[in-house]
Amino acid sequence: MRVSKMFLSTLREAPSDAEIASHQLMLRAGLIRRLAAGIYSYLPLGYKVLRKVEQVVREEMDRAGALELLMSALLPSESYQASGRWEVFGPEMFRLKDRGNRDFCLGPTHEEIFTQTVKSEANSYRQFPVTLYQIQTKYRDERRPRFGVMRSREFTMKDAYSFDRDLEGLDKSYKAMYDAYCRIFDRLGLDYIVVDADSGAMGGSGSQEFMVKSDAGEGIIAYCPTCGYAANDEKAECTVTPMEKEEPKEIEKVHTPNVGTIEDLVSFLNTDASRFVKTLIYRAGDKLIAAMVRGDRDVNETKLINYLGVNEQDFELASFDEVREATNAAVGFAGPIGLKIPVICDHEVMGMSNFIVGANETDYHFINVNPKDFEPEAVIDIRTIKDGDPCPKCGAPISTTQGVEVGHIFKLGTKYTKSLECTYLDENGKAQYPIMGCYGIGINRTMAAVIEQYHDENGIKWPKEIAPYHVIVIPVNMRDEAQAQISENIYNTLKAKGVEVLIDDRNERVGVKFKDADLIGIPVKITVGKKAADGIVEYKRRDSDVLEEITIEEAIAKALEYAL
Ligand code: ATP
Ligand code: MG
Known about the structure:
The protein has 564 residues and is of the alpha+beta class.
């Protein structure tokens, strides 16, 4: 391909709203352009990479025995109504009506539609097990689209669904996908970690996420360097650290004027945040609840949501008015004593003595409170794990790191086959529900994650597997006949051998060509300059600082060796 003809437009500066490296570089290298919040177009160079990511995923899915098909993105509402997810998805689902006023959505994920397909196509036990997949566009009206294609409102997902006759079969299908995912992310050169995850709104008995370690990640991974335990922070269990028991003292109400935050209280009462228990009021569906954790801990909303069995969409911190309704006090003075709404208390609090809580009265707290002084509805683990907390498996200190979730695999069970009445006849002619698993990879997000791990201050450094082109030939001076001719020869030789090669035939200064070559991340650069007339060119790898002056033949041989 000739750079002069490839519709390339690179930018020296990234737009200021691009916060993370991959977003900045995808814009600067001319891979994507923003159309609206969370909606992007792929320009030719970007689309080429995206298709290569798809191809790696496709090859490994095929190798694992999954069958590719393609569903529509425009989906009738009925099966989502049947599964209950027409409601569950809430505002995240893009909904529309056809001219006959029938409800449709743009599919956010396709469990229902695959289940419906298996229901109509597979009736006999002989047709199981089966794993089907597609690589297709998904739509989610994300609350916070950001980081470019990492969290967008339209994205490409590889989604696969397995259907088995028994749990052993599910385990096998799940393992086959797990192994395929490892091969995919290995081939892409990603440094990733597989973590236990929350099954959330999907239902089901277990799930794992493939997380790429990166500061740009929105997920927190808790892992144990000692025993290998790894979970995301929504899921990671928190154990109770035993605390010294004190003799319970007499409760006292103290005046704490305008001291509504933990930080203010710590300085006002001259004590430590771990001596407090904070009480947060949430709205869960149409009721209010209170959640209690130690003052220096964070409430884990996923754990609360799972305990309460509510939709994520229907769960949020209560408004000022709702807090006042529940506590008769301003925000910052809630406590468990005398509270009329259900209290869910973190199990760690039960081991604390003589702590401080809000008094449900503006400007007042109680001190010397003990677990005997209130009655929680439940005592469970509702806090989020932190760096240094004990590992729930072995007790050694946990480490945490940020990660980007690129893939997610679930054991679903029969939630969808049951709600959609999808059955087959077993050997005895008896109707049975297939047991499902589902497996997603975000193609665009994976592409961005690769850039997060493969870049420097000059641009992208594509790993070979998904580099849009492997070699770029750069004539230093296009007006120099010998340079132009030799460049053409190298380009044609490599192209004839099947190498994906670029020639930068633009009438640009060589500095501009070098900058662009680095920015778009082409792995091998052959520079044809003054010495070319004597048969010498420069050979440089994007991932190395070594610049070699070698003969034209050697450069061609090295480029072939790299690319093929
Ligand atoms: P997240 O927690 O990041 O919102 P999710 O749990 O909603 O992800 P899944 O429903 O499991 O994600 O989707 C499977 C995969 O699709 C994810 O692992 C991720 O790679 C990708 N994905 C999900 N949402 C988006 C999005 N808004 N933009 C780009 N990719 C996404
Ligand atoms: Mg999501």
